Amino acid sequence: MYEITSLSIGRTYVTITFANDVKIKLLPRVYSEYYLYVGKTISEEEFNNLQIANEDAKIKDYAFGLFVNFSYSESELVKKLKAKKASPKIIEETVLALTNANLLNDARYAKEKARTLQESFYGPYYIKNYLKDKGISEDIIKDVLSSPYDYATSLATYLKKPASQVSAKNKKDRDEKLTNKLLRRGFPFEVVTHAISELPGLTDEQVLKNLQKDYEKIRYRYARTYEGDELKQRILRYLSQKGYNYNEIIKMLEEE
């Protein structure tokens, strides 16, 4: 049996002390659900139920707190609650409570995430896989991606940004690298190939700039191990294999 010897009501918790020096901190709303007062004696079962109710309330508070600044899919939420060792019953109750509070909504979540990814220049295949990883249903994903969006214009805009640039030794090399990069961002192949076909060729200045960048990077790496002619030969071999002009490489090495 547990006899209550003192109650201390704080801003965050109500601390209850029992005669056997056992203490328990209850959330105010849990405390208000039970008729507890100094001198009252509760059974072992009642004490355990009190602890369970308090832990369950903490789980629910944690779940609601997650949605203060961010949004989550139901699958993500369930994973987080399981990590907190929440019981299946509390997980179900928490999901229902958040849904009723209009905080948990997979359809809205999917639309918001899709829009954010589109605005960050990602294509439909990337978005589809992203939402799938978040546990969004196929029906919702299909509905979200059925909304019209001009991915061709999005891609054209992205290609004007510095973040889209790749280091290349010639137009073919650039086009291959860009194709792989844009496919990884989830754009359809036909949209990618059309956008790249509209790009101008690389100027001599751009090629030399890329050569200089690759030269400095590989020289820094090799200089820690080699020196003199051995260093130059290894740099020459490396840059030649990347497709840069032999004479331009020699000129750069002679300018050291």
Which descriptors apply to this entry?
single chain; 256 residues; alpha+beta; Arc Repressor Mutant, subunit A; four-stranded antiparallel β-sheet; elongated
Structure description:
- The chain is α+β, with helices and mostly antiparallel strands and 256 residues long.
- The protein is elongated and about 95 Å long.
- It has four domains: 2-100, Orthogonal Bundle (Arc Repressor Mutant, subunit A), CATH 1.10.10.10; 105-148, Orthogonal Bundle (Arc Repressor Mutant, subunit A), CATH 1.10.10; 150-166 and 174-200, no CATH class; 204-254.
- It has a four-stranded antiparallel beta sheet.
- The chain starts with a strand and ends with a helix.
- The model has no long low-confidence stretch (mean pLDDT 90).
- The protein has helices spanning 28-33, 44-66, 74-83, 88-100, 106-119, 124-133, 138-145, 151-158, 171-184, 189-197, 204-222, 228-241, 246-254, and strands at 2-9, 14-18, 23-26, 41-42.
- A hairpin with a 4-residue loop joins strand 1 (2-9) and strand 2.
How would you concisely characterize the structure shown here?
Helix content is 61%, strand content 7%. The protein is α+β, with helices and mostly antiparallel strands and 256 residues long.
The CATH homologous superfamily of the largest domain corresponds to Winged helix-like DNA-binding domain superfamily/Winged helix DNA-binding domain
The chain-level mean pLDDT equals 90
CATH class of the largest domain: Mainly Alpha
Indicate the percent of residues in helices.
55-70%
> H/E order of the elements?
EEEHEHHHHHHHHHHHH
Strand numbers in spatial order across the main sheet: 3-2-1-4
Distance between the termini: 87 Å
Number of strands: 4
**Unreliable parts:** none
Structural class estimated from helices and strands: alpha+beta
CATH architecture of the largest domain, please? Orthogonal Bundle
SS summary, helix count: 13
Major beta sheet summary: 4 strands, antiparallel
Determine the strand fraction and express it as a percent band: 5-15%
- CATH third-tier fold name of the largest domain: Arc Repressor Mutant, subunit A
